[in-house]
């Protein structure tokens, strides 16, 4: 008999195996899971359509036919995993057919196998339930400052130095601005975003977590309201830097990717209704000629800084620093934190 376990009860030397399709896995999975799919995305789509529009029995038969051709390969993969782990823990979308059938087969072949109750859906329910509790237990130390002052770089250095950091932009795979996707590829789904936050807070070493001030929406993801409100009541630090430092930092960040110019131009065109067609044409021409300085400095001074400073005065800052270089600025924050 295949045992079913709640995600929150997992313990010991186990490995999570996500048997859903690659597309489902990419949208969001359980941290550390390995994807060994029973169906690819197209097979899943076909079987699902038959299930809903024709017949459950027909869908089951086609599913078995498709899966049977892969079982030997799947068995070999999982057999190798069983040499490293004491237990194989399977999950699918809702803990139903895919993980159930495969789990019973593996168990009958002598592999110690369990499946997660309600599958990925059960894990999501667990995350949604536990995330507010974890959030209640932390105090956020929030970095504020204009675009390009180095907030993200400071957070990375803080993390390297052993401090707890919640990198919302990193989790969203978006820099939180109109040009935020340049060079980064596909943004994170809301489900995966929330899961990353959960695991970071669960694994935090202290009750103080450094974080960057953000708008509630980052790319395609939204910061849960209870976290967003907790950030507002946190400890606030203002980070500043001169325009040359900011310009160089942004240019280095945004132009290190292949095809960066075309992506930058695509993003710039979305600003047309705010700063006019003539300015956009001028900026696009400058980008194509690698004259980034004028574009970056003007966008900061005329567009981003006025928008940011509108909200910057809402907070009392416990510390204000001027960044000359990232390492020194990070050290200032760490020294301040240790005596606070």
Automatic annotation (TrEMBL):
Superkingdom of origin: Bacteria
Tagged with keyword Ubl conjugation: no
GO biological process: tRNA wobble uridine modification
SUPFAM superfamilies documented for this protein: P-loop containing nucleoside triphosphate hydrolases, Rhodanese/Cell cycle control phosphatase
UniProt key word Nuclease: no
Residue ranges of every copy of the Rhodanese domain listed in the record: 10-132
A Pfam family hit: Rhodanese
GO molecular function: tRNA 2-selenouridine synthase activity
InterPro entries for the chain: AAA_SelU, P-loop_NTPase, Rhodanese-like_dom, Rhodanese-like_dom_sf, SelU
Name this protein carries in UniProt: tRNA 2-selenouridine(34) synthase MnmH
Biological source species: Clostridium tagluense
Lineage: Bacteria, Bacillati, Bacillota, Clostridia, Eubacteriales
């Amino acid at each position: 008999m295949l045992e079913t376990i709640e995600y929150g009860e997992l313990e010991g030397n186990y490995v999570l195996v996500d048997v859903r399709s690659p597309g489902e896995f990419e949208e969001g999975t359980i941290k550390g899971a390995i994807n060994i799919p029973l169906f690819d995305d197209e097979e899943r789509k076909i079987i699902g359509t038959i299930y809903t529009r024709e017949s459950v029995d027909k869908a089951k038969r086609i599913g078995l036919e498709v899966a049977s051709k892969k079982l030997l390969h799947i068995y070999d993969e999982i057999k190798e995993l069983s040499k490293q782990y004491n237990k194989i823990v399977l999950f699918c979308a809702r803990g139903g057919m895919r993980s159930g059938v495969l789990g019973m087969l593996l168990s009958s072949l002598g592999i110690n196998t369990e499946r997660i109750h309600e599958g990925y859906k059960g894990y999501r329910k667990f995350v949604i339930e536990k995330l507010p509790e974890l959030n209640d237990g932390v105090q956020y130390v929030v970095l504020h400052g204009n675009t390009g002052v180095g907030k993200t770089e400071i957070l990375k250095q803080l993390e390297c130095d052993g401090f707890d950091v919640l990198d919302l932009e990193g989790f969203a795979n978006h820099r939180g601005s109109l040009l935020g996707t340049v060079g980064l590829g596909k943004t994170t789904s809301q489900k995966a975003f929330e899961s990353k936050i959960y695991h970071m807070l669960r694994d935090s070493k202290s009750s103080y977590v450094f974080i960057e001030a953000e708008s509630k929406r980052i790319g395609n993801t939204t910061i849960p309201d209870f976290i967003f409100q907790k950030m507002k009541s946190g400890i606030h630090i203002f980070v500043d830097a001169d325009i040359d430092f900011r310009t160089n930092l942004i240019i280095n960040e945004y132009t290190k990717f292949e095809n960066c110019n075309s992506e930058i131009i695509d993003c710039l065109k979305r600003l047309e209704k705010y700063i006019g067609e003539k300015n956009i044409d001028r900026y696009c021409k400058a980008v194509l000629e690698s004259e980034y300085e004028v574009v970056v400095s003007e966008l900061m001074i005329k567009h981003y800084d006025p928008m940011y400073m509108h909200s910057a005065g809402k907070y009392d800052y416990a510390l204000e620093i001027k960044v000359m270089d990232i390492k020194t600025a990070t050290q200032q924050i760490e020294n301040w934190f240790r005596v606070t």
